[in-house]
């Protein structure tokens, strides 16, 4: 039994332009102590999936399916029960830490807040633990700084501290390296890995960067146009991908010579019939535009392609 | 004609009594027709400011910018207008590179009217341009918010190409785009260079993009070229 | 930065008070009349004497200097209608106005920001919609009309409250009885403005990433509002409330008129009827000074509570 | 995709959309009444009947102390009240937009000076100043509108400036400059249209506060006696005993008209404002 089991999760949004199908029948499993990278391009629905897990979607989202954590379906919980899960069992690290931290409180206050409010720790105990944690993350002497006084990288670490202070079992990191300079990426990934190991947690990493996925993850899931196209062990997916989209995505990487994927990105309101990748697929057959491919097992996972 | 900067420095004063903060210091660069100069630097290194100075959008506090050997800030109005046309700049933010209140078609026609192209040729020229950057006609009626980031960036590029520039300064043209789209745009840029022999200054933080595109590389750190 | 602001206030003070000096001299009509008020009838001799006293014969820059010197000596001129120095007239009236304004502004700030924050946070709930509609109605009504309505229904029809004045016997209970309705109206009036600002501010702040992060950290809805959003949303309110002070104060003047209270409002109303210009000008100067002080105070407070401003210094 | 999601609206807004029609509906019926006053008004507002009549079939809203028909006064009064509100708002919107655009676009010295002036204007107690000036001059509604217009541009100037500062940093503004468009073209064709949606709601609110101010100043008897606005009507009811004697039909209708019309303006401003709040981005 996996730690977190996502089954047929679909998310759609009512908009004036039409129904946006942001995620369609997404099934994923996150095992104990595992790092799973959810990879895809902008707008493929990967952030929607994690926000659905955390129940942080806006009110106009329609969510279907099940998200099972320790035998409980998170989607059926009410806001109060869910608030208990957030932070303590499942924690999330946002991209853009400088905006995610509250500008008018010191970072030590923001880290100890969860301890005080959720674990009912005394203020002094909470502050002690949070300053230990901040020191371990290399923010010694910066505990009583405000977010605007720190660099983006320091804020990123402060936010990691805020998220993991209660020792969550699952850490979700949403594009933690987006917009960072190359030198910072390795450092931030290191911090996240450390936080994961200290807590013995599992990590669900959302990223658009294949290189990041390669560095940190055990398993990779590739999303395209709201669907998971392929899941498997990291080496297999990145060395010998089974889905043509994964192949095309890898080919467009700098080290493979920036080979572009032909054609425009698909519409999420009116996604292609059948296989969603078929309009841009080099191996497209007649059947591809009619029938949605079923999941086929691969050596270490599965793929949604008829080839 | 080539574009170069000689000992360009840039500093601002914050407020009346604020300290002068230096953004650029003694930068020398040369952009040649048909070649791409990659300018690499981290965030806050002053690379965008240098780009704007070279495009004549900001006046350096010290040093000169030379186009075809002549100081652009000492040119007569007519020559400066010519310089404006021949040296163009494309910006990072793909969603902000076109006016959100105007349709794509109007954004393009605006440039045509600036160039005093007769009205009857507008449609044809517009279609030509779209073809050059690999887009279809159906986009014309839309607003920038209704097309993708990559398409916006192509239109911005196409608009600039209407002016038939000799040199284009590209400020992180692909860094906000997805990997696959980035690849499309970079290929397009290379192709255009081959066809038209334009010179590029490619400003980016990505070493990989530079090594793919550039003939020469300059590195900038805290306002200094190293 | 704060000193820059203070300097701006000093310049504003200087210019607005100078404007006050210029008005009677630049307006059409006889300057002396403009300075003394209309319908003042005096003998020739007394007129000449006055002319010398007011100083209209002197060159303009001397007049200007004298004007400022008098101001620093708290001399705001003399009312020939009421036969009293303007400053003592105002001093006598302003305490009653402050008795109305001070509690109302404080209560209005508390009630308005608190309810406004809750309404912005739970804006889809029926209760907060109803509340918003109520405050919106108050917001859209001229304060004196509101007072007339309250006075008509609660005073005339139901007879719960006295119809005019501050007190009959002068005991605290009596004063409170007279003051209750005007203070209530004034509080609602100032609360409605703070309510609207705070509600809008919370609606904007709740879209910020830190608010969703607070939720992701597992905080309850109330904790997110009061621990995270409230402080951020309330900060700009400090400045806005100060900028609004002039408007709220003006509202108080009208409320006083309707309730026939012995404050600045009726002083202005009466002096308008007989064009008693010195009093009008004196009240304008006093109100200006109060508005500027309120804004200065707001800036200082803001600097104390917002860490971003505090550290810039 | 991101663009589509940015445009997200909750399903509930469809229901709200019906409510949001209320503002424009009230607004346009008042405008219509003001324009068609000659046609729909039952009597000439200056024609004299029996004074102090209660509302009845003859006079739907009764008559006042001079025997004027209140309904007719009300309909004709809307012309004055609306005209003052709109002309003050148009003047202040023009001034504020010009100052804000100029300061924000050119920055530097121009910005410092203009914003310094704005800060000073913000400190002026506006209604007391108008009272003082109106006391010295011959009372006139146009003077009132002019003064309000000259005093009320500050809020808009600040908003337009900060929006302009944002817009000028966007790629398309720098792009337009690089292509060689003139500053004039950039300001009016690129910057101004992108500030309109912050101007529009503020304009509505300015009309609203100008109307409340007009009513307040008229209440003090500082209005032109040859014209009647809603504020003037309440003023007379108050000073000539209508209020003290409980003749609610005299002062209630003009007061309610002010409230309801101002409400419609604020509601419309609210709708326009909400459009610019970006919903949470989900991807």
| Major β-sheet annotation of chain D | none
Give the domain tally of chain D.
1
Content-based structural category of chain D: mainly alpha
Proportion in β-strands of chain B: 25-35%
Measure the end-to-end span of chain B.
Answer: 25 Å
Structural description of this entry:
- The complex is a heterotetramer of chains A (307), B (226), C (313) and D (283).
- Chain A has 307 residues and is α/β, with parallel strands linked by helices.
- Helices cover 32% and strands 24% of the residues of chain A.
- Chain A has 2 domains: 4-85 and 185-304, Rossmann fold (3-Layer(aba) Sandwich), CATH 3.40.50.300; 90-167, no CATH class.
- Chain A is built from 10 helices and 12 strands.
- In chain A, helix 4 crosses helix 5, helix 4 (107-118) runs parallel beside helix 6 (152-164) and helix 6 packs parallel to helix 7.
- The longest helix of chain A has 18 residues, at 182-199.
- Chain B has one domain (3-225): Rossmann fold.
- Chain B contains 7 helices and 10 strands.
- Chain B has helices at residues 47-54, 77-86, 104-114, 122-132, 149-162, 179-196, 207-213, and strands at 3-13, 20-31, 36-40, 62-67, 70-71, 87-90, 167-171, 199-204, 216-221, 224-225.
- In chain B, a hairpin with a 2-residue loop joins strand 9 and strand 10.
- Chain B is globular.
- Chain C has 313 residues and is mainly alpha-helical.
- In chain C, strand 1 (78-79) and strand 2 (84-85) form a beta hairpin.
- In chain C, helix 6 (126-139) packs across helix 8 and helix 10 packs parallel to helix 11 (264-273).
- The model of chain D is unreliable at 1-12 and 276-283 (pLDDT under 50).
- By secondary structure, chain D is an all-alpha fold.
- Chain D has one domain (2-274): MetI-like fold, CATH 1.10.3720.
- The relative contact order of chain D is 0.15.
- In chain D, 73% of the residues lie in helices and 0% in strands.
- At the C-D interface, helix 1, helix 6, helix 7, helix 8 and helix 10 of C face helix 6, helix 7, helix 11, helix 12 and helix 13 of D.
């Amino acid at each position: 039994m996996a730690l977190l089991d996502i089954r047929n999760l679909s998310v759609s949004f009512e908009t004036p332009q039409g129904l946006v199908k942001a995620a369609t029948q997404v099934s994923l499993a996150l095992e104990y102590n595992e790092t799973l990278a959810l990879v895809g391009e902008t707008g493929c629905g990967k952030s929607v999936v994690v926000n659905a897990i955390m129940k942080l979607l806006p009110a106009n989202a329609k969510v279907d399916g099940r998200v099972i954590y320790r035998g409980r379906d998170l989607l059926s919980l009410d806001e109060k029960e869910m608030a208990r899960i957030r932070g303590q069992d499942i924690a999330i690290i946002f991209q853009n830490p400088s905006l995610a931290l509250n500008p008018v409180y010191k970072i030590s206050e923001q880290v100890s807040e969860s301890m005080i409010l959720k674990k009912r720790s005394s203020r002094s105990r909470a502050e002690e633990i949070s300053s230990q944690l901040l020191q371990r993350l290399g923010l010694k002497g910066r505990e009583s700084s405000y977010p605007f006084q720190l660099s983006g990288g320091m804020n990123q670490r402060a936010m990691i501290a805020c998220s993991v202070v209660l020792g969550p079992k699952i850490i979700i990191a949403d594009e933690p390296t987006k917009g960072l300079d190359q030198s910072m990426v390795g450092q931030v990934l290191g911090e996240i890995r450390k936080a994961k190991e200290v807590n013995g947690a599992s990590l669900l990493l959302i990223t658009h960067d294949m290189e990041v996925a390669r560095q940190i993850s055990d398993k990779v899931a590739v999303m395209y146009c709201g669907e998971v196209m392929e899941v498997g062990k990291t080496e297999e997916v990145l060395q010998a991908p089974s889905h043509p989209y994964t192949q095309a995505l890898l080919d467009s990487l700098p080290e493979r010579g920036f080979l572009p994927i032909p054609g425009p990105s698909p519409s999420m309101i009116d996604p292609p019939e059948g296989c969603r990748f078929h309009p841009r697929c080099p191996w497209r057959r007649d059947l591809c535009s009619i029938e949605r491919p079923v999941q086929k097992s691969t050596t270490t996972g599965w793929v949604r392609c008829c080839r | 004609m080539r574009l170069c900067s000689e000992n360009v420095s840039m500093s601002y004063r914050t407020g009346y009594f604020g300290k002068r903060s230096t953004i650029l210091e003694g930068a020398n660069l040369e952009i040649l027709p048909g070649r791409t100069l990659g300018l690499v630097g981290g965030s806050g290194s002053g690379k965008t400011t240098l780009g704007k100075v070279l495009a004549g959008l900001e006046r350096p506090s010290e040093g000169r910018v030379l186009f075809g050997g002549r100081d652009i800030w000492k040119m007569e109005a007519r020559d400066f207008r010519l310089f404006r046309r021949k040296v163009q700049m494309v910006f990072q933010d793909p969603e902000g590179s076109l006016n959100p209140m105007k349709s794509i078609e109007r954004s393009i026609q605006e440039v045509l009217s600036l160039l005093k192209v007769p009205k009857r040729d507008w449609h044809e020229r517009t279609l030509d341009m779209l073809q050059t950057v690999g887009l279809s006609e159906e986009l014309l009626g839309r607003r920038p918010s209704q097309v993708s980031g990559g398409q916006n960036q192509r239109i911005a590029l196409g608009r600039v190409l209407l002016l038939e520039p000799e040199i284009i300064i590209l400020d992180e043209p692909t860094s906000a785009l997805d990997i696959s789209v980035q690849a499309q745009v970079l290929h397009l840029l290379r192709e255009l260079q081959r066809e038209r022999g334009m010179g590029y200054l490619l400003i980016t933080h990505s070493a990989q993009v530079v090594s793919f595109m550039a003939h020469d590389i300059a590195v900038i750190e805290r306002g200094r070229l190293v | 930065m704060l000193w820059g602001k203070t300097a701006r206030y000093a310049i504003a003070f200087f210019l607005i008070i100078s404007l006050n000096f210029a008005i009677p001299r630049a307006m059409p009509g006889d300057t002396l009349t403009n300075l003394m008020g209309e319908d003042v009838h005096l003998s020739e001799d007394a007129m000449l004497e006055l002319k010398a006293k007011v100083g209209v014969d002197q060159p303009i820059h001397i007049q200007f200097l004298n004007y400022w010197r008098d101001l620093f000596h708290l001399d705001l001129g003399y009312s020939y209608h009421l036969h009293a120095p303007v400053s003592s007239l105002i001093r006598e009236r302003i305490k009653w106005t402050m008795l109305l304004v001070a509690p109302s502004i404080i209560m209005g700030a508390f009630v308005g920001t608190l309810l406004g924050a809750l309404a912005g946070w739970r804006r889809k709930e029926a209760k907060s919609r109803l509340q918003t509609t109520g405050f919106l109605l108050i917001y859209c009504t001229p304060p004196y009309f509101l007072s007339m309505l309250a006075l008509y229904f609660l005073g005339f029809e139901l007879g719960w409250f006295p119809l005019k004045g501050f007190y009959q016997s002068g005991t605290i209970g009596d004063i409170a009885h007279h003051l209750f309705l005007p203070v209530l109206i004034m509080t609602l009036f100032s609360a409605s403005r703070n309510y609207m600002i705070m509600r809008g501010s919370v609606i904007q702040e709740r879209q910020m990433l830190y608010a969703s992060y607070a939720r992701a950290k597992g905080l309850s809805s109330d904790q997110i509002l009061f621990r995270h959003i409230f402080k951020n949303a309330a900060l700009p309110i400090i400045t806005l409330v100060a900028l609004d002070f002039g408007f709220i104060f003006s509202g108080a003047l009208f409320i006083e008129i309707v309730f026939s209270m012995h404050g600045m409002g009726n002083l202005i109303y009466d002096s308008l009827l007989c064009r008693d210009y010195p009093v009008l000008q004196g009240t304008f100067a006093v109100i200006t000074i109060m508005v500027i002080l309120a804004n200065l105070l707001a800036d200082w407070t803001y600097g104390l509570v917002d860490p971003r401003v505090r550290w810039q210094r | 995709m991101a663009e589509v999601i940015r445009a997200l609206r909750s399903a509930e807004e469809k229901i709200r959309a019906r409510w949001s029609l209320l503002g424009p509906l009230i607004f346009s019926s008042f405008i219509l009444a003001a324009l068609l006053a000659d046609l729909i008004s039952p009597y000439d507002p200056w024609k004299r009947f029996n004074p102090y009549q209660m509302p009845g079939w003859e006079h739907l809203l009764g008559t006042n102390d001079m025997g004027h028909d209140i309904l007719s006064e009300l309909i004709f009064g809307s012309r004055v009240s609306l005209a003052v509100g709109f002309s003050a708002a148009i003047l202040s919107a023009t001034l504020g937009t010009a100052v804000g655009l100029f300061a924000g676009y050119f920055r530097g010295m121009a910005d410092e000076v203009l914003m310094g002036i704005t800060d000073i204007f913000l400190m002026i107690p506006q209604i007391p100043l108008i009272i003082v000036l109106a006391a010295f001059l011959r009372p006139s509604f146009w003077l009132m509108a002019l003064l309000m217009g000259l005093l009320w541009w500050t809020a808009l100037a600040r908003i337009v400036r900060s929006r302009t500062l944002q817009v000028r940093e966007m790629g398309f503004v720098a792009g337009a400059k690089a292509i060689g468009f003139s500053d004039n073209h950039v300001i009016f064709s690129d910057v101004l249209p992108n500030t309109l949606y912050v101007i529009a709601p503020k304009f509505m609110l300015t009309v609203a506060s100008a109307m409340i101010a007009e009513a307040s100043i008229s209440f003090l008897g500082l209005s032109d006696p040859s014209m009647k606005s809603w504020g003037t009507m309440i003023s007379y009811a108050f000073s000539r005993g209508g209020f003290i004697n409980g003749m609610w039909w005299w002062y209630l209708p003009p007061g309610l008209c002010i409230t309801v019309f101002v409400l419609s303006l604020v509601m419309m401003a609210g709708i326009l404002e909400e459009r610019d709040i970006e919903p949470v981005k989900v991807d």
